Amino acid sequence: MGRRTILIALVVVLLVLWSSEGLQHRVGDSIWSIPPTNNFYKNWSSSYIFHTGDTLYFDFDSGLYNVLQVSRGEFDMCTGYEPYKTFIDGPATIPLLMKGVFYYVCNVSNYCALGLKLWVIVEQT
Question: DSSP E strands: which ranges in the chain?
Fold first, then answer.
């Protein structure tokens, strides 16, 4: 086998491994905390394309913050009365397993109203 053939085979293997693993997105590219503006996390999520197989990495200290996956209604109202999932121990890694729109809030104090909320659109890989 020539060098070129080996190089092409290596590139193909790397592309397959990369595409099957998915990407880990550090939410906000920083720690999960009260943002400088209300639209901070909305602007962050709109700058990425999320795919099934990717993960969201919420970097926060347990006891100070949390992450709740909620419905659109609870997201809009900044409540977490009936969360789908609750993550109280930080940091939290959340796999994006299916296509759709997913909503996350922090229900500590009034942090959600201060902008500590995120929604992502996940596309099929």
Answer: 24-26, 50-51, 55-58, 67-70, 85-87, 92-95, 100-105, 117-123
Domain count across the chain: 1
Which residue is it, tokens 């959600």? 112
Per-residue model confidence (pLDDT) at position 17: 40
Note the pLDDT tens digit of each residue in 13-35: 334 344 457 999 999 999 999 99
Mean pLDDT computed over every residue of the chain = 89
Looking at the domain assignment, is residue 14 inside a domain? no
Q: How far apart are CA 111 and CA 99, in angstroms?
A: 28
Q: What is the pTM of this model?
A: 0.83
Residue 89, domain CATH = 2.60.40.420
Q: Is residue 52, in this structure, part of any structural domain at all?
A: yes
In a domain, 46, yes or no: yes
Residue type, 37: T
